Amino acid sequence: MDSVARRFYFVFGRLSAFLFLLFFIVTATFAQQKIADSLLQQLKAHSQKDTSYVRLLNQLSMAYAPFDNKAGMAYANQALLLSKSLSSSHALATSYLTQARVYEFGSKPRNAITAAMLALNEFKRSNNDTSGLVDCYLKLSANYYNTANYITALDYVNKALLLAQQTGDKKRVAACYNTLGSCYTLLADYPKASAFYYKELKLADSLQNKSMIAKTTGNLGVVNYYLKNYSASLKYYNRCLRVLEELDDQVWVGAALNNIGGVYLDTKDYQKAIDYNQRALAINLEVKSKKGEANDLNDMGVAYGHLGRYAEAFACLNRAISLYDTIGSKNNSSATLGHLSDLYLAAPGDVLRTQGIDPAKRLDKALAVQLKAVSLALEVRDLNTQSDQWKKLSHIYEQQKNYSAALNSYRNYAKLTDSIRNDKKREEITRLNIQYDYDKKAAVLESENQKKQAELSRQKVIKNASIIVGIVLLFSATLSFVFYSRRKDAREKQKEAELKAQVSETEMKVLRAQLNPHFIFNSLNSIGDYIARHDKETADLYLVRFAKLMRLILENSEHETISLADDLKALELYIQLEALRLGNKFLYYIEVDEDIDPEQTLVPPMLLQPFVENSIWHGISPKNGDGIIHIKVQKNGGMIEYTVQDNGVGRVRSAELKKNKVKQGRRSFGIKVIQSRINIINAAKQTDAKVELTDLDEGTKVSIKLPHDLKF
């Protein structure tokens, strides 16, 4: 059986290098406990429940957050309640920001985004506290970064950078450079990432800030690691390590040691990789960093596997998986399960027996583990992890001679690989969705000698795009009408109820295929305006997002229902385009209850769009000052409930402003279409779906209840 084992592939890889992010710096657990104890004494001595008491509660919350997140959140909530009772906008803003930080430490980025949005709104009321605004933008950027939404993260950090530069706040400017470098690192734009890190390093040197110097040199090590420039990577990592050891910052020392071990793992010096990860493991055990401990064990398991020390590899990988499961790190758990699956294929029979595995059943065991790895990768929606796990699953099926399953898995791998290759930069947004060769024209745009021709070319592309979109929409509508007519003729003699159901289904397809021509026209005008003003970067961003939205709408129009995740993705693109048109006049946030699985929940496509459009153009656009749109998805009995709430001028005032304008007709038509779709859903599914509009003191609230349909 050992000879059989050696025929299997043995492909191991490591997890990503650890980026040193300034917006997420912690000290060792014992140091945090000492700080917390001191703050508790100060809190007991301060009897008056005033803003100083709020400040102490927030400081205490941050002291506990890294090692006792539950206690940290309890103090943050106390600070929030007291701030509300004191009617202090600044105290309330600071408390919301603290809550966002605690959520971030607790690995709940979406909750952190919601809290940071609320903090931002309060800081704007509090005489536009510039430092507070910068911190909010940085916190929003950090948590969009943590959800892999790097484009939105870049939008917010650029806002933070502009304000920080205006006030000459060097420390916050450096934090912005760090975030920009980190985003571009994970977007694989390494030249831009390096440029921002070097700017940060220059500021860090001028401020003589050793902590900042350590993090910046560490990140330069990460960039060179991804470029496979291992000698430069080691140089920066070792400089980072020396400074961290001077600071006695044990948490980050562990991270630096793990990164150095990763370089030796990639360069196949497996014993050195083990040595550095063992040092990192000892530190992470001391400071009780479960994620750091798991990362070290994963890399050690990989190295032991390459050295043929299979028993030690099994021990490390199994411990790593257990830790990842404990902290809920599904993406890392998926990757490590993939390594474990490889190990079952490669280990000799006698080692498998010590693991309680019959060597004759190694393929069955590897398959079970690999299926779990694929399942977790699908849950977290990480395309790179999914691609790796589908490829490994295909290999196992091939060894089992299950060629049909092997081919299907390989197709999934190939599809994801192609998607990653085409969409990796700019958050997987492609420039080729309307079937013209934009990339070749973009190359021409780089030439300084052809700028005038480039502008004309861009204008032509925009016109072609509008024509193609119009043709596609007309063709889709025509096909839908033909399909409806044929089905109607074929089933003319069937029961009236069946006929009505079929007509309703076809009408839904026609409605879904319709795009607001005003929106298309205005979007193309906006692109043209940006080009005319030589704002190439904004025009490029707008065009990319517009093309992506067109593609999603056309794809989604083919389906009666789509996943909630896909629907919210299209809705967010629409909101981002409208925000650009309004000069970012409003903020928005989308909140999905934790007990709803967006990937498995099915909803009618673009049902919310007309209500969001109304919020933007009839509620917030005529409002003096900035607006907020809050979109929430939650369970309500056996139904799923959307709510769209804005702080605009409200329906009554909007009607007064718009009563003599043509746009009012569009608003009524949009709501009528949605009500028609709701009626069709009720008729088809015998349910009680409905729309409710509520006038608020400030703004409007829309609630939509739908049946909670799942894929399975």
Structure description:
The protein has helices spanning 2-5, 29-45, 51-64, 69-86, 89-105, 109-125, 130-146, 150-167, 170-186, 190-207, 210-226, 230-247, 250-266, 270-286, 290-306, 310-327, 330-346, 349-354, 362-380, 383-399, 403-423, 438-445, 451-490, 496-513, 517-532, 536-556, 564-581, 609-620, 651-658, 663-685, and strands spanning 562-563, 586-592, 601-603, 627-636, 639-646, 690-695, 700-707, 709-710. The protein is an alpha+beta fold and 712 residues long. Strand 6 (690-695) and strand 7 form a beta hairpin. 43% of the residues are buried. The chain is globular, with a radius of gyration of 28 Å. Mean pLDDT is 79; it is low at 1-13, 22-30, 424-450, 509-514 and 662-668. The strands form two sheets. A five-stranded mixed sheet has the order 2-4-5-7-6, sandwiched between helices. Among the domains are: 429-558; 585-712, Heat Shock Protein 90, CATH 3.30.565.10. Helix 16 (310-327) runs antiparallel to helix 17. The longest helix is centred in the middle third of the chain and has 40 residues, at 451-490.
